[in-house]
């Protein structure tokens, strides 16, 4: 159960945050490989994975077109992402000799760096204003690295952490679960794809064809959950162009496949070997379980990814409290 679920705030938006809460600017705590043990034992890890799994359960068997509640907080988050999208249009790529890593991305990022707290303040009610600087750090971390002009699963994890923090302070509620994935995370994906295409961003620490995808992981987890018990779409169908074209608007997983085939050339089995292997798994529930295991092993338990993760009061490095 995600932390945001356990601490469901009451319906009154006037409720003040817990008086014991001292918000802090998140910082890196994992500096060496042996520090990874601290991460795996941390409250942050337990809350983060709990959040991912709660959302995984929430979208099970549901199409993107499924009718769900859209709260004011969800609308505000979508508006925030629309602003980031508009800034891409206002910051066209510059002419430069190298094909990848367009330097205009740095101009775009500088704007976010400057405006992140103002953007987050549009989502967070005034009585929780003290949380804004802490939560805004995760937003800034979620869009790629401005030095290397790259993007990867660590940045994606920062966005999930951003949403998790909003749940922990009560901005997002239990009944927002489906909208968090289908409306907010899906919009985030669209903006990230636009960033990747516009500025030709490099994959961060790409494992080449042995990774699941150059940039994302979570939409494959949640997207496979959506397809559990589907009446006719089986894992083998996602390598079938017709099946993808006909169903991608309903399922995140297929939308990801479509994006990969647009961006890459050559046989699918060669450019996306891991995904090709997954298409042989007999059921979506087995795909989903396997992807969760793979996400823990390939992303959450890899030092090159987690060394960049930041810890604060909402996602703390201290070990899991036994009372939880």
UniProtKB/TrEMBL annotation:
EC numbers, comma separated: 5.2.1.8
Region (Disordered): 1-24
Top-tier EC class: isomerase
Keyword field: Cytoplasm, Isomerase, Rotamase
N-terminal signal peptide: none
Subcellular location: Cytoplasm
SUPFAM superfamilies: PTPA-like
Keyword Cytoplasm attributed: yes
InterPro entries, alphabetized: Phstyr_phstse_ac, PTPA_C_lid, PTPA_sf
Primary location group: cytoplasm
Function: PPIases accelerate the folding of proteins. It catalyzes the cis-trans isomerization of proline imidic peptide bonds in oligopeptides.
Record family assignment: Belongs to the PTPA-type PPIase family.
Full protein name: Serine/threonine-protein phosphatase 2A activator
């Amino acid at each position: 159960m995600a932390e945001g679920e356990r601490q469901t705030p009451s319906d009154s938006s006037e409720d003040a945050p817990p008086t014991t809460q001292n918000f802090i600017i998140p910082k890196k705590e994992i500096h060496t490989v042996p520090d990874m043990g601290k991460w795996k034992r941390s409250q942050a890890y337990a809350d983060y994975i709990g959040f991912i799994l709660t959302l995984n359960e929430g979208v099970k068997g549901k199409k993107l077109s499924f009718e769900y509640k859209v709260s004011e907080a969800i609308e505000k988050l979508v508006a925030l992402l629309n602003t980031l999208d508009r800034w891409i249009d206002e910051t066209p790529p510059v002419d430069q000799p190298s094909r990848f890593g367009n330097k205009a991305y740095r101009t775009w990022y500088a704007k976010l760096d400057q405006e992140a707290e103002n953007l987050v303040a549009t989502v967070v009610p005034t009585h929780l204003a003290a949380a804004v600087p802490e939560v805004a750090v995760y937003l800034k971390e979620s869009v790629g690295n401005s030095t290397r002009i790259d993007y990867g699963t660590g940045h994606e994890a920062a966005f999930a952490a951003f949403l998790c923090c909003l749940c922990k302070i009560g901005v997002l509620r239990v009944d927002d679960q489906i909208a968090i994935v289908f409306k907010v995370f899906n919009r985030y994906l669209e903006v990230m794809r636009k960033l990747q295409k516009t500025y030709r961003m490099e994959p961060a620490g790409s494992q080449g064809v042995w990774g699941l995808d150059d940039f994302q992981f979570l939409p494959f987890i949640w997207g496979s959950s959506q397809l559990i018990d589907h009446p006719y779409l089986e894992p083998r169908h996602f390598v079938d162009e017709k099946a993808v074209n006909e169903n991608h608007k309903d399922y995140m997983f297929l939308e990801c496949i479509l994006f990969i085939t647009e961006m890459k050339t050559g046989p699918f089995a060669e450019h996306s070997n891991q995904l090709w292997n997954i298409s042989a798994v007999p059921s979506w529930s087995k795909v989903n379980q396997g992807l969760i295991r793979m996400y823990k092993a390939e992303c959450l338990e890899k030092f090159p990814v987690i060394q960049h993760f930041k810890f604060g009061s909402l996602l703390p490095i201290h070990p899991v409290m036994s009372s939880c």
